[in-house]
Write a structure and sequence with these properties.
Elements (H helix, E strand, L loop, with lengths): L22 H6 L6 H20 L2 H29 L9 H9 L4 H28 L4 H29 L6 H12 L3 H26 L15 H33 L7 H9 L5 H25 L3
Length: 312
């Protein structure tokens, strides 16, 4: 975990006892800790313990494996999207379809267990980073921004970890069907439909951020690639195109939510699978879906490379 220089916590030395003072006087004048100092010492001790765990080489290696799992899922979603483009697949183009592909492969169940646990470790790492990183940020606004951004990542990886482990345990899920059922339960009231629109707008905002993050190469701040290293160019290309493609896919998901709410049709809110398959019917939609599918594959490759070069 990268840290800003720690603030100066120099404590003035305790005043010396007057000459000729008794031992009892010296004892009574020994440094006494105020409640605030005690709390600070406990917090510092907790920080050290949490940082030791988060920065332990074994834990860090497992957490980096979470990036690999995320990358594999995105690569498979991209492959399914390309197969849909050419009319050769009826699989769900989402996490469920990707994980079902892994589960059906020889040894796939073992890979799912390993990947799910790795992503759970990545969630723990992000939670620790939210707490520890905020302690070193200057200003309340910067601390809140850091916590919100980091916990948001933890939530995303947490959902994926639960999904992966569910498949590893023999379960399965149709995320599009579940999304439609949840949306249908909210369609019956005006506040519910407004809530669906808000969710759609949030997803669109996240998608736009992904596009901006990729186009501006903001993701480079999360990496530590040696200058002149041969992988630098690959990381940049996969990051730029991958983030933009994923952003377009998320914007499509958000539009599907908005369309479902405005038309009072929960069947239209089918998540990523519905958004990608819906692209096919658009003018030049096959080309757009092919570009997004290829971009998701590049995003997956970026995630795999991030496992090697991410700042931890």
């Amino acid at each position: 975990m990268t840290r800003d220089p720690a603030p100066d916590r120099t404590v003035d030395p305790a005043p010396a006892a007057p000459a000729g003072a008794s031992a009892s006087y010296s004892s009574s004048m020994s440094p006494m800790h105020s409640p605030e100092e005690g709390v600070r010492k406990v917090e510092d001790a907790a920080d050290v313990a949490a940082e030791d765990v988060a920065e332990h080489p074994a834990f860090e290696a497992v957490a980096r494996g979470g990036f690999v799992t995320s990358g594999l899922v995105h690569i498979l979603i991209g492959v399914i999207a390309l197969r849909i483009t050419f009319g050769g697949s009826s699989q769900d183009a989402d996490q469920g379809g990707a994980l079902q592909t892994v589960a059906s492969a020889p040894g796939g169940n073992i890979l799912l267990w390993i990947g799910g646990l790795a992503m759970a470790a990545l969630v723990i790492w992000h939670v620790a980073e939210a707490w520890l990183g905020a302690r070193w940020r200057r200003g309340a606004r910067e601390r809140v921004r850091h916590i919100a951004r980091t916990l948001g990542k933890a939530a995303v990886y947490g959902v994926l970890a639960v999904t992966v482990l569910r498949f590893a345990a023999g379960g399965s899920s149709d995320s599009g069907e579940q999304t439609s059922e949840l949306t249908a339960g909210l369609m019956g009231s005006v506040p519910g439909r407004i809530g669906i629109v808000v969710v759609g707008l949030v997803v669109i905002g996240v998608g736009c951020f992904h596009v901006y993050h990729g186009a501006s190469r903001g993701f480079e701040e999360q990496l530590r690639v040696p200058r002149g290293h041969g992988a630098a160019g690959t990381v940049i290309i996969t990051g730029v195109l991958g983030f933009i493609a994923k952003g377009i896919a998320l914007v499509g998901v958000g539009l599907m939510f908005g369309w479902a709410a405005l038309g009072a049709d929960p069947e239209k809110a089918t998540g990523l699978d519905g958004a990608l398959k819906g692209m096919v019917v658009l003018p030049a939609g096959g080309v757009l879906l092919g570009v997004v599918g290829a971009g998701l594959i590049l995003y997956g490759l970026y995630s795999v490379l991030r496992a090697r070069y991410a700042r931890m």
